[in-house]
Amino acid sequence: MLIDGKNTAAQIKAEIAAEVATMVANGQKRPHLAAILVGHDGGSETYVAHKVKACEECGFTSTLLRYEDDVTEAELLQAIDRLNADNDVDGFIVQLPLPRHISEQRIIEAIDYRKDVDGFHPINVGRMSIGLPCFLSATPAGIMTLLERYDIPTRGARCVVLGRSNIVGKPVATLMMQKATPGNATVTVCHSATPDIKDICREADIIIAALGSPGFVTADLIKPGAVIIDVGTTRVPDATRKSGFRLRGDVDFDNVEPLCSWITPVPGGVGPMTIVSLMKNTLLAARHDIYPA
Amino acid sequence: MLIDGKNTAAQIKAEIAAEVATMVANGQKRPHLAAILVGHDGGSETYVAHKVKACEECGFTSTLLRYEDDVTEAELLQAIDRLNADNDVDGFIVQLPLPRHISEQRIIEAIDYRKDVDGFHPINVGRMSIGLPCFLSATPAGIMTLLERYDIPTRGARCVVLGRSNIVGKPVATLMMQKATPGNATVTVCHSATPDIKDICREADIIIAALGSPGFVTADLIKPGAVIIDVGTTRVPDATRKSGFRLRGDVDFDNVEPLCSWITPVPGGVGPMTIVSLMKNTLLAARHDIYPA
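^ inputs. structure came back:
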C-alpha cells in the first residue's frame, strides 16, 4: 500500500497552522524561518520555493536572502552572524550545495545550533546520536514520522539502509536503532563498499534506499511484505515534461510495489515530509522546546 | 591468533613517550591530563589508577581531583569550569558513573569540547559521525587502532556490533562504516530488541561484542575465520583471586578462540587500548592538532 507523504505532510502542516493560530491569538509572534540561497541551481531554487510555500501554509513568517554565485565565504558568514543575532528569526537554513569556493562545513558550523533547524550542526548531530533532544535533520525525521503515522512496526525488524551520507543514511540508521518507537530495529547500513548488497536487501523487513541510484532496488531484492522507503530523487531527462526532466527514486516502483506491504512513491513520499520536518523544527525553535531562550 | 592489546598499548605508550621527550627537549610543556573521581567505586578507582599510571608512562603530567559521593552538581560544575580555564590542563575527564543526584549529561556538556579527551561531548560525537577531526571516544578508537595495527581487512566485511551504547556500540558502528581504513565495513547493530541475534552473528566476518553479557558469544555463533573483538568487562565473583573477582568478556574465549582468525582476550585486549586512546587524545589536545589553541 502507498505511504502517502504528500497527504501526511498536508495534515501535519494543517496541525502546525492550527498551533500557530493559537500562538498568535495568545499574543505570541509568528514562527520565522529564514533561508539563504546562493546562485541559481534549479534544484535548489525548487526546494527553497517549496520551503517558502510551506511557511505560508503553516502561518510562518519567511525571509529569503539571495546571493549570487560569486558571494564570498566572508559575506555569507556575516549574513549568518546577522541571522544568529536577529531575535525575530527563530531558525534558518543555508540551502546546499554551495559554490566550491565556500566551505559548506564552515558555513554549517557558523550557524547558532539553537537556530539550526536543518539539524546539520555537529551539536545537533551529536545530540541525536546520544538520544538527547535536538533538531533532527529533516529527511531522517520525515521518514520516522511516516513510519509513526502509518503505524508501521519497526521493533526487532531487520532494517537495511542503503547509503551512508551524513544527511540521510547515517542519521536514519541511528534513529532506527534507537530504543524508541519507531526505532528498536536491527539496522544494517550498506554502501559502495558492500559486495553483497542485494543478498542483504533480500533479508530486509524495511529498506530505506538513499543511494541516489535510480531504480537500484529491483523486485528481485524484495522480501515479500517488506516496507520500502525511497529517499532517492534523481532528475532524469524526460522530453514529455515541460521541465525536461522527472524525479526518479532509488526503487523500481512499478515492479516492487506489488510485492511489498508499504512503499513511498517518488515524488510524493519522503520529499514533502522533509519540508514538513523543517517546519516542525522551526515551530520547536519558536517555542524554545529544544533549547531554552 | 591473539590480538594483544596489552602489547600494542605498551608500544603506543612508548611512541607517545618518545614524542613527549622531543616536545620537552624543544622547550614545550608536558601534556597534562586531569581526572575528576567522585566517590570510591572499585571499578572507577581501578580505571583512574590505570590512567594515572599511563600518564606517567607517557611522560604526561597528571592531576587527580577527588570528591566524596556527596559532592553537589554545582561543586562539580565549578571544578569543571576551573579545569576549562586552566591553561596548563590540556584535557580532562570525569570518571563515570557519577552518583545518581548528579546529571552525567550536564557534567559532560560542561566540559570544554576542546579539552574533552573522552570524546563524550555532543560536539565531538557529532563531528565523529560527520567524519570531521575530533576527539574520538576512547574505546571505539582503541578498537580501530587494534584493527589498524594488526592489518585486519575491514573493507566490505560484514561487521556485527552487539550493543548500541553511546560510548561503544553506536560510535564503533559509525567508525566501522565510515569511508576509511579501517572502516568501509557493512555494519549491523544488534541489541536487546533483536530477535535473531545468533543468526546474524553467524554471518559476521567481524564481531564487536559490547553487551556486558559474560560469555554471550559462544562457539556456535562463529563463522570460521571470523575476527572477534570483545569489549565486555563484567566483574564476576572468583574466590581464587585476591580481589574476589575476575573480569569476564562477552565472548566464551576458550571455545571461540580455535574457530576464529583473530580474537582479543579479556583482560589484555580492548581495555588497555581504551586507556592508550585517552593518552593519544591528550597528546592531540596538547599539540592543538584537532582544535586550534
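The beta strands of chain A are 32-38, 61-67, 91-94, 158-162, 186-190, 206-209, 227-230, 234-237, 245-248, 262-263. The first strand of chain A starts at residue 32 and ends at 38.
thumbs up if we can close this ticket
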